[in-house]
Predict the 3D structure of the following.
Amino acid sequence: MKHRDIENRLALLGAIIVLIGVSSAATTALASESVTPDHAASTAEIARVTLEGGRRANRRSADAAVEAITMDNWSGLDIALANRTSRLVKDAS
């Protein structure tokens, strides 16, 4: 029983040491990254490209909607000018 308790405590101590080491390494790695003007410029460039892409996508969607509405209006106008009507006739049988 005592042997098992010693193993558990050693395993816990080892896990704590590994956790402290990993946390220290992560803190050191993240602390070494600083925001440089190049980094800020690249972030601004990414934002600009993303914004332009969004504008182009919105414009394509708007153009497609205008085309669909135009086609629908022309179709409706043709039907109205030709005085066409639609009737549903129920079969007598």
